[in-house]
Design goal:
By secondary structure, the chain is an alpha/beta fold. The chain has helices spanning 3-8, 12-44, 49-53, 69-81, 113-120, 178-191, 204-216, 237-241, 244-252, 265-268, 270-279, 295-299, 311-318, 345-353, 365-374, 376-389, 396-417, and strands spanning 57-63, 86-90, 105-109, 125-130, 146-151, 172-175, 197-200, 225-228, 256-259, 286-288, 303-306, 323-326, 354-357. The radius of gyration is 24 Å and the shape is globular.
């Protein structure tokens, strides 16, 4: 390539990043222009500035994907029960919140990806609650008009499985285990960050699942069913083992098999998903599941095969069922975990919940399934892990809403005394 050609070349990764930045910039400019236009229109028609700015949103929620509705639904129900108005902003046009029927929850679709972040960057609110990491790291910036940012995890277990700096710029994090507090405090110390407000609020969405499970009654009689439900990315089951696990289950057992890839796999790993679905088509013994709500598929499965996916804790701690987990060696470099001196909590938890599946013992998968289903060792392990990572069992939604409203009242009181 000529010298001029080299000067003009931009690699695909950099080009994609620049494109995303440009979209964010133009989105932000569009928002600013629109606000300026509204101000001019109000002034021209005799309006006052306070009319233009409008009232500050007391409590706002942001969800970057509809799949996080189960995380927020119990909180929204509690807000609604108390008659507290909440603005719920979503980046999914078909988010269930838009038709949830809760009188005091105003669901608003604010656009996808950078369009949503552009809106958030100029938000005017007292408190914003979100499960999205990366605040003030990439496109999503702290708004000067938002007083307080609260993070609530969307899975039980490790709090540092986010990409690096995932929670650094939140004001507060809702926790459910002592190890999570230790991890955050260690990161703050090593990065010279001001201490966040850490509150033990439990896990509202898992409390909700427990109640739903009890209300739904016993599962219908069925053949022994194995659910394969991994995360996505380089450490996932399908990237490490391709279709080997599916092949061994089909050839060496008579179990019913359900395959439920992470939703992101169908976007970021589409070619791999297409290959697997072609190699292992649906049959009487095998099904591919893409339900938005995973409640029923977890209920009718007897054993879960997974990796680092948060579904491991849903399945074992809510449904009280055993797991088989895959080889857990992976590069922690991109994650906040890399900074921690202590052993990764999830690694120890997985050993208590089930057996590890490797290339060497994969041909013995039938015996592994039978062992985890029959051994009392893993039943006791589930109790131990539940106690470690799920404080205030059954109290999550009330505790979290109490905390949010107490924080709101505290912020408003401080505002009055300034």
């Amino acid at each position: 390539m000529s010298g001029n050609g080299l000067l003009l070349y931009i690699d695909p990764g950099t080009g994609s990043m620049l494109f995303a930045v440009l979209i964010g910039v133009f989105g932000a400019l569009g928002y600013i222009i629109r606000i300026a236009f509204l101000k001019l229109r109000f002034i021209a028609t005799g309006g006052k500035k306070k009319d233009v700015d409008g009232d500050k949103i007391p409590i706002a929620i942001f969800s970057d994907n509809k799949r996080y509705w189960p995380v927020f639904e119990p909180l929204c129900q509690e807000f609604d029960k108390r008659g507290i108005d909440v603005i719920y902003m979503t980046a999914s046009s078909d988010d269930p919140v838009l038709n949830c029927g809760l009188e005091h929850i105003d669901g608003q679709f604010i656009g996808e990806n950078n369009k949503a972040f552009s809106r958030l960057n100029f938000l005017n609110a007292t408190i914003l609650l979100s499960t999205t990491p990366g605040l003030d790291v990439y496109q999503w910036k702290r708004s000067k008009k938002v007083d307080y940012y609260i993070h609530i995890p969307h899975a039980a277990g490790e709090i540092c499985f986010y990409r690096m700096f995932g929670l650094d710029y939140y004001d507060s994090v809702i926790l459910a285990g002592d190890f999570q507090e230790r991890q955050i405090r260690e990161l703050e110390k090593k990065r010279n960050l001001p201490p966040k407000d850490l509150f033990f609020g439990g896990i509202p969405y898992m409390d909700q699942m427990v109640k739903r499970l009890k209300d739904s009654g016993e599962a219908a009689p069925h053949d022994t069913t194995v659910l394969i439900a991994p995360t996505w990315g380089s450490v996932s089951i399908f990237n490490r083992f391709k279709g080997e696990i599916i092949k061994h289950l089909l050839e060496e057992t008579d179990y019913h098999i359900i395959i439920r890839p992470h939703p992101q796999s169908f976007e970021s790993e589409k070619e791999l998903m297409d290959e697997l679905m072609k190699e292992f088509p649906e049959s009487d013994r095998l099904e591919w599941n893409r339900d938005v709500d995973n409640f029923e598929v977890l209920k009718r499965s007897d054993v879960l095969v997974s990796d680092f996916s948060g579904v491991v804790f849903d399945f074992s701690l809510v449904y009280d069922k055993p797991i088989i987990y895959t080889d857990t060696e992976f590069d922690t470099a991109p994650y906040d975990l890399w900074w921690l001196d202590e052993e990764v909590w999830t690694l120890g938890a997985l050993e208590k919940l089930g057996r590890k599946l490797t290339f060497d013992n994969m041909s013995d998968i039938k015996n592994l399934v039978e062992e985890v289903m029959s051994s009392s060792q893993f039943s006791e392990g589930r109790k131990q892990v539940r106690n470690e990572c799920w404080k205030y069992y059954g109290e999550g939604r009330e505790r979290c809403v109490d905390y949010i409203m107490n924080k709101y009242n505290e912020l408003k009181q401080a505002e009055k005394t300034e």
